[in-house]
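This part of the workshop introduces the protein records we will be handling. Each record describes a single protein and holds just a pair of labelled lines. Instead of coordinates, the fold is spelled out as a row of discrete tokens. To make this concrete, we reproduce a full record directly below:
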Amino acid sequence: MTPTLPQSTIDTLRSLAERYETRQFIQGDPSWFMHQVEGRANQEAMAFVAQSVAYGSRKQFMAKTQRLLDASGGDMSRWIAEGAFHDIVPRNSSCFYRLYNNDMFNRFLTAYQTLLRQHGTMGDFLCRRSSDALSAIEALTRFFADNGSHGIIPINAKSSCKRLCMFLRWMSRSGSPVDLGLWSHFIPRRTLIMPMDVHVVRQSVNFGLLKGSSATMSTARRLTDTMLQVFPDDPLKGDFALFGLGVAD
């Protein structure tokens, strides 16, 4: 059951979202990388690669993503489509980043290469298969699982799929100094799902938005429904309020 929020909580969340959804939010955030490249296909590819390693220490994942951007020469879509990544991410068991070894990340990029070669861009792939965020997540998890990639993209949409939800926010929210809105014509921002991590869950409980602490897709959707009380038709504006509080300060 969705809780009815007091006006004071609504006002606080709106104020926090305005405070944090600024151009300055990008600094030190994985969304920074998609603003460093040009062209729709390239921004899509850069954003998707950035989300894949966006966990753990910010210092570490920003450095790892920068290495990938440097290797691509600023043309991430072409770098992946042509398979140039094999030079720096060979199929061996050496550590690539935290829980990922080279073989896992190579298989992830190889699956993405297959998608790009078959469909041109990820946006072109998804616009024929999805009309909202959940169907887009289901299409992506199914494609990567079917194409031999495991451990980086979730195998289904039962978990919170935090990084995919964040990626879809980047791609689908228009009119934002942070998000690109490239897919706003086929994924309405009202259907986006809150990206849930430990920090967001904690803040949500503190604000009375959630009672439980499980990071599942059903919990993420309940939180999103609650955020619609605060930001009608744009629930993920609330992501800036919850994530920014305590992280950006």
